[in-house]
Write a structure and sequence with these properties.
alpha/beta; Thioredoxin domain-containing protein; 5-stranded mixed β-sheet; Glutaredoxin
């Protein structure tokens, strides 16, 4: 039987030219395509807020903006989710906040969500407060009416964008 012939592993000049064309194409794609996430962008400082206490979390909710919460444990999928969250948090900052909870550190908060598959994402928001846009709320109040929606879209910046549109969250994007 005849297989592929010719030397393998020795690129000739045509391959080198193709390679630089590919590099140019990728950089063009990176600079122009809104949804291209194959390479990390320079996002600046992280916009993800680490969860430190329920009190801190309630204060964040009092700001009246939707809060996307990622409940995580250490696993390879969490590493992928972290990259998505970093990009989404930078894209929708400051209109939508992103919080990461490391569940092994805060089991009480995570167990109240009654989920057993990690990582998962939920969106917390207060429709009344969003309507009154930030009227003063006593920061000592710990009881707080908040809606929680499961995030069941594609875990990507595009997925978050579509989700926010569907639920009518006001945001603008940083390009």
């Amino acid at each position: 039987s005849k297989g592929a012939s010719g030397p393998i592993g020795f690129p000739d000049m045509a391959d080198a030219a193709d390679q630089s064309f590919l590099d140019r194409m990728i950089s063009q794609l990176r600079s122009t395509c809104k949804y291209y996430t194959g390479y990390p962008k320079d996002l600046g400082p992280s916009r993800i807020i680490p969860f430190t206490s329920e009190r801190q979390f309630v204060q964040l909710l009092h700001e009246g903006r939707p809060v996307v919460v990622a409940f995580t444990i250490k696993c390879t999928y969490t590493q992928h989710l972290d990259k998505v969250l970093e990009e989404a948090a930078a894209t929708f900052y400051p209109h939508i906040k992103f919080v990461r909870v490391e569940c092994p550190k805060y089991p009480g908060f995570c167990l109240t969500r009654q989920k057993n598959e990690y990582p998962f994402v939920e969106v917390f928001y207060n429709p009344e407060q969003a309507a009154s846009q930030g009227r003063g709320v006593d920061p000592n109040t710990t009881k707080y009416s908040v809606k929680v929606l499961p995030f069941n879209y594609d875990q990507s910046v595009y997925g978050f964008r579509e989700y926010f549109k569907k639920h009518g969250f006001g945001y603008s994007e940083r390009k």
